[in-house]
Amino acid sequence: MTHPGDALPGAEAAVPAHPFWVELFGNDGPVELEVGSGDGTFLRAAAMRDAEVNLLGIENAYPRIRRAEERVAAMGSPRVRTLMADATCVIRTIVPAASVHAYHIYFPDPWPKHRHAKRRVVTPALVRALARTLVPGGHVFLATDVHGYGWLMRGCVLAHPAFVEVPVDDTHGGLLTGFARKYRARGRQVFLATFRRLDAS
Q1: What is the pLDDT of residues 65-112, one digit of tens each?
Q2: Among 74, 84, 117, 153, which residue is least crowded by beta carbons within 10 Å?
Q3: What is the SS3 string spanning the chain?
Q4: Which neighbouring-strand residues pair with 104?
Q5: Considering the entire predicted model, what is its pTM?
Q6: What is the distance of C-alpha 29 from the center of its chain?
């Protein structure tokens, strides 16, 4: 997939594929993870848009991950995988450092009540894990229809010194989701944001 900032002056050299991902996907292509893959709509669309990218969708709701698995199986693509698990736990404990090229976090539950805020996906702990596991120049893509939550997520990412915000363009993966298509068809604005992982130095 094409990512904002890939052609920026001084962009980092390509990072060799980590053996962990080579073992999982059977190739050394770039790896992108979707946090909360839902029914697999984005995974399917992203795989069709760029056949060279390896995609892993992580979802902890059984009905959704089962639907995603069905869609992935129907594609027959060796470059798309799904996992039923807590994405934050997986990223913090299993994903190798500096090995992921992009994270996609689309329409997570905002948990608007104060007592439920701790259940939100985008937290300082997750952002630290994203910074640890992204390659230099890697990206984080966010999308939500709840603009207040969007600004909170944006602030959480930018509070980490490893990230800078870059302009959103029409290649943003959030636009490939069923939620985005539905909301835009109804005339509702979707909050989109893109962040770039700086060089570790």
Answers
A1: 888 888 888 888 889 999 999 999 999 999 999 999 999 999 998 766
A2: 74
A3: CCCCCCCCCCCCCCCCCCHHHHHHHCCCCCEEEEECCCCCHHHHHHHHHCCCCEEEEEECCHHHHHHHHHHHHHHCCCCEEEEECCHHHHHHHCCCCCCEEEEEEECCCCCCCHHHHHHCCCCHHHHHHHHHHEEEEEEEEEEECCHHHHHHHHHHHHCCCCEEEECCCCCCHHHHCHHHHHHHHCCCCCEEEEEEECCCC
A4: 34, 141
A5: 0.89
A6: 16
CA distances from 148 to 106, 128, 143, 152, 191 (A): 15, 22, 12, 6, 9
**83: its two tokens:** 């996992």
Q: Where are the domains of the chain?
A: 30-197
Is 109 an active-site residue? yes
Q: Of 51, 41, 96, whose CA–CA distance to 72 is shortest?
A: 41
Report pLDDT digits (tens) over 139-152.
Answer: 999 999 999 999 99
CA angle 155-84-63, nearest 5°?
100
Tell me the Cα Rg of the chain: 16
For the sheet with 191-197, list strands across it.
80-84, 54-59, 31-35, 100-106, 134-144, 191-197, 163-166
User: What are the tokens at 18?
Assistant: 């980590």
Specify the CATH number of the domain 30-197: 3.40.50.150
Q: Looking at 109, 145, 170, 199, which residue is catalytic?
A: 109
